[in-house]
Amino acid sequence: MYQLIAKDGAAKRGRLHTVHGVIETPVFMNVGTAAAIKGAVSTEDLQQIKTQVELSNTYHLHVRPGDKVIKKLGGLHKFMVWDKPILTDSGGFQVFSLAELRRIKEEGVYFHSHIDGRKIFMGPEESMQIQSNLASTIAMAFDECPSSVADETYMRNSVARTTRWLERCKKEMARLNDQEDTINRQQMLFGINQGGVYADIRVEHAKQIRELDLDGYAVGGLAVGETHAEMYRILDAVVPYLPVEKPTYLMGVGTPANILEGVERGVDFFDCVYPSRNGRHGHVYTNHGKMNLFNAKFELDDNPIEEGCQCPACQKYSRAYIRHLLKAKEMLGMRLCVLHNLYFYNNMMEEIRAAIETGTFQKYKANKLEGMEQGE
Asked: Which residues are catalytic (predicted)?
């Protein structure tokens, strides 16, 4: 159940009650593709850095170690030792990202595994079955994520198929949640709005899928090559047509600035690999812009990454030491940067929630953006 606690313009402050605990929104989900955050980050670390939701990848876990293996071991929560909510994506994005390895048909998608080349078929029912085996808190509907530059005819046909697939997902999810051997019989289902940069197709699709009364609604197929301005234009067009009394999820987004713009337009959920990926390359986020710790100017800098930051890295270690670790290719350097970046994102979401509750989101957003634009 989703509670709308406060609004500040279109910005929403909500609370989603799940079988694995309450999610305070807006929320940034920390991406652990193969049931782990890249950079040697443990689930104990996630607890320490204010993580609310972990996100894992259906396709990758199906390929390795196998969703049936994870089910035999008690589900994803037990497998990765995480007691808070987990969202699993549907495998639909891999339809986009593994374009060279797949064929799309009405029944579903035929893949070749990117690991060993073996044939894989995934349709709406298979995606739901895999996610049910994983026993995640929130399952995403199986969709096609078309290229943002696909022509209008292709986009209309693709979106119509995604709608048919969504109806099949809902039916299969209901069946699975009724099975005695299902680990999480209260698994939630989020549908996905598609339509590329065609606002009229997006709005039409939103109107169709909101009738299905799902647990939440995502806006997919953005941050895949279009400009930020185009992304914001689509959000302005489509979010008002998604139910305000349900959580809205902007998939695969993004930078701190993207998140602030998304929140302003009524988005509740975000996820992105940026904080962990950038951290592994020595790029760290601060309230005064992004820093590259490989830069020589940090060689003798005994300050923390950011003064006043409560993350595990800033509590103990200097920029100089972390730079040394990165230059020496020591895993600890990457780990500390990833921990800092995820804490920065999670803490920013906490600040956003407080700002919406006090009606000061616009002021908060302006100050945050002004500070972060300084950079090095």
From this structure: 89 (proton acceptor), 271 (nucleophile)
